[in-house]
Amino acid sequence: MDIIANFIDGQYQVPINQQYLDNIEPATGKVYGQTPDSDNQDLALAISAAKQALPVWQKMDLEQRADVLIAIADEIEHRSEELALAEARDNGKAVSLARNIDIPRAASNFKFFAHACSQFASEAHAMAGSAINYTLRPPVGIVGCISPWNLPLYLFTWKIAPALAAGNCVIAKPSEVTPKTAALLGEICQKVGLPPGVLNILHGSGAKIGQAICQHPQVKAISFTGGTATGAAIAQLLAPKFKKLSLELGGKNPALIFADCDFDNTVEQVFRASFANQGQICLCASRLYIERSIYDKFKQALVKKAIALTPSDPLKAECQMGAIVSKPHLDKVLSYIDSAKSQGGKILTGGQQVKLNGRCQQGYFLQPTIIENLPNSARCNQEEIFGPVITLQPFDTDQEALALANDSQYGLAATVWTNHLARAHDMAESLNTGIVWVNCWLLRDLRTPFGGMNHSGLGREGGLEAMRFFTESKNVCVKY
Ligand code: NAD
Questions:
Q1: Digits of tens for pLDDT over the chain (480 positions)?
Q2: Which protein residue's CA is at the shortest distance from atom 26 of ligand 1?
Q3: pTM score over 0.90
Q4: For a substitution probing ligand 1, which of 35, 38, 175 has the most ligand atoms within 8 Å of its CB?
Q5: How far is the CA of 282 from the centre of ligand 1 (A)?
Q6: Same structural domain for residues 387 and 300?
Q7: Could you tell me if the CB of 449 is within 6 A of ligand 1?
Q8: Residues 402, 387: one domain?
Q9: Cα dihedral sign for 201, 203, 206, 211?
Q10: Are residues 244 and 391 both part of a single domain?
Q11: Is 117 among the residues known to form the active site?
Q12: CB of 255 closer than 6 angstroms to any ligand 1 atom
């Protein structure tokens, strides 16, 4: 049994209340570990450690701070195989995906923000002949970072790295569904000599320790990634407390596929955008709008690929599609497929749970599922499913495609597939999403603003946006 501990003040510590949550391996459906169900008592220890560490970390020479973050990145790379296997087991994702995307990206997050330490500059505003204003950007202080289960170490470090780079001390909480790689990050911090208390990792449920972190008066900012309903609850809780809040929430991302696209490449990329990580990426395409003249051909090409993509044991190198993260989540995804059937949807392929043999007999596997014939108002076109389920709809004009795509409460990411330059720019300008990819998907430059509009969130992560979020700006006006 793999028993995880909290990481507080540079040491692993058991939860004071001695309570644990089961950690289940999605591919087997079996409990394989225990995760602390931490509460306010553990948080008090973490806050006290962070308070002590804050002056040391804030005053550390920038080059030295950057060196520590680079050392964390190097150690993640050094332990990448172990981390990839841990991620695949904990989350159910294909180990090849963890090897090629999740773990390298976690290292990149630390490297990128290590460089930001020295590149982050502030402004001066001269008032000719009378005064000079300059902006100071001190760290916020103690900040909370709360992350979801779909890209566990990748998103955990996407928050922690800029928070540390800006000089904050961090209380971080990974998802209780996928705690393992976050737990291993503590060992890495110990090994490279991150001063104790600078990063504290508390495990447990959102309702208990997550909420406690948000509410603690010493925690001055919360960076949260997760579901829209959770984000709304946190926003409501924090509004009267005037804390800085960054919310990266759900999505219902449209893909607009025009007849003039590069057909084969678009099929390939849109398929990946739909089903990567079992469709459990907030940026995955889930509503496909296809120009009518290529609708049938495109549909057939997608269905052929979906039939060939069969789920298998995530720990095997050849696995291309792993397990759904948990039983409740599998049930939720299946309930959307039922709702599609009851609303007149036609299941073109998939729609069923898959039973594997051997060690994965009880695992949570689902066939890639493609549905057509649903109106845009159907639940499957309006609500986030967050699984390997996509819907197809034909369109006739650019205006129609745009109206369908924008008919959503969400606004995270859209993809546009066309070789018509003006159309691509028109669409990019008119789509109500924080991110638009043209003829690509998940191509990431860490300097760019990352986040969504409307019910997809508030604020942006990435590059300078993240450094600004984790600092306060203070203007100093000097008259001479
Ligand atoms: P979730 O909202 O259930 O949980 C996210 C995190 O919040 C977990 O660590 C959880 O323990 C914690 N939490 C839950 N309730 C809390 C509360 N009341 N106070 C404080 N913390 C609380 O989300 P999930 O199911 O883990 O993740 C899936 C969701 O995340 C999807 O909606 C997906 O779109 C979204 N997501 C968004 C992005 C993005 O960048 N926009 C990226 C990845 C995932």
A1: 899 999 999 999 999 999 999 999 999 999 999 999 999 999 999 999 999 999 999 999 999 999 999 999 999 999 999 999 999 999 999 999 999 999 999 999 999 999 999 899 899 999 999 999 999 999 999 999 999 999 999 999 999 999 999 999 999 999 999 999 999 999 999 999 999 999 999 999 999 999 999 999 999 999 999 999 999 999 999 999 999 999 999 999 999 999 999 999 999 999 999 999 999 999 999 999 999 999 999 999 999 999 999 999 999 999 999 999 999 999 999 999 999 999 999 999 999 999 999 999 999 999 999 999 999 999 999 999 999 999 999 999 999 999 999 999 999 999 999 999 999 999 999 999 999 999 999 999 999 999 999 999 999 999 999 999 999 999 999 999
A2: 148
A3: yes
A4: 175
A5: 10
A6: yes
A7: no
A8: yes
A9: negative
A10: no
A11: no
A12: no
Q: Calculate how far, in angstroms, residue 398's C-alpha sits from the geometric centre of ligand 1.
A: 34
- Catalytic annotation, pick one of 75, 87, 248, 384: 248
Q: Ligand 1 centre from 206 Cα, in Å?
A: 9
Q: What's the CATH code of the domain at 20?
A: 3.40.605.10
Residues 259 and 245 in one domain: no
Ligand 1 atom, smallest distance to 230 CA: 2
Q: Which domain holds residue 474?
A: 2-249+455-479
Same domain (yes/no): 461, 439: no
Regarding whether 228 and 323 lie in a shared domain, the answer is no
- What is the distance in A from the centroid of ligand 1 to the CA of 281? 12
